[in-house]
Amino acid sequence: MYATLLALHSLTRWLVLASLLFAIFRAYRGWLFNKPYLKFDDGVRHITTTIADIQFILGLCLYFISPIVHYFLHNFSTAVHERAIRFFGMEHVTMMLIAIAFISIGSAKARRKSTDKEKFKTMAIWFTIALLIILSSVPWSFSPLISRPNFRPF
Questions:
Q1: pLDDT > 90 in the chain, percent
Q2: Within 10 A of 145 (CB to CB), how many other CB atoms are there?
């Protein structure tokens, strides 16, 4: 179960990033070029938020069955001083929770705005902040701090 969840979480990361990048592109395009906020744009906003929420649920399930997190929680005083253990036990989950909050809040605020420009602007700002948080907190394969494979097999 752990390996399957880990592979799903790794795969869904790419869906989150792709949908978020596309939503940000549409948001800046609409905001800066005064485009009308179409039903398609609303769908992009909604799908991006849904994919991020699914990723969060997968990550939360993974958090509670992870042997790394189990070690972190049961050996906190020593584990907090181990970079890799602390990253997955505390840093990654905290930053991703913040990123999901930014996506959810940005989505809800954009939905409630009255003009097309305000919708696009709200989406662009909140989603961009979320993307920067995500990019800084993913254990990329090239990261010198903590690295994991970009794709995990099932």
A1: 92
A2: 10
